[in-house]
Amino acid sequence: MTDLSLEITRAIPHPPEKVFDAWLNPEMLAKFMLPAPGMTVPEAHSDAKVGGRFKIIMRAPEAGDLPHEGEYKIIDRPNRLQFTWNSPYSQDDSTVTLDFTPTEKGTELRLHHIRFPSQENRDNHEGGWSAILAALETAL
């Protein structure tokens, strides 16, 4: 187990409130939590409060259902969202922090994910999160 981390920043042409709220809305989560082509989200739940939990089932054509769940640690609308991230490919204490900064053209979204079991796992998550952020922009 390591303290490897990744950071991705993406400009999204929507106001921070709209981008932030998408992360807490189960219907929106089902539209953009798609880390690879061909994946779907048949199930998404969110108890959007500090200490509340979320669960997202990502369905991969080859791998079947991949449950992802966690607990909301910080909900500071529309500035910061932090949650634990538990999946078949993560460490128990893996954490994702999202920072939403207003810009003239919308929002700069910074995703910082910490704690991965290996460099390969970190790299795979970087690709997955990049695809998710692109799908988020399209879904909005």
TrEMBL record:
Segments forming domain Activator of Hsp90 ATPase homologue 1/2-like C-terminal: 14-140
Task: Show the InterPro entries listed in the entry.
Answer: ASHA1/2-like_C, START-like_dom_sf
Give the matching Gene3D superfamilies.
3.30.530.20
User: Mind telling me which CDD domains this protein's record contains?
Assistant: SRPBCC_CalC_Aha1-like
Say which family it is in.
Answer: Belongs to the AHA1 family.
Name the UniProt record assigns to this protein: Uncharacterized conserved protein YndB, AHSA1/START domain
Species of origin: Ruegeria faecimaris
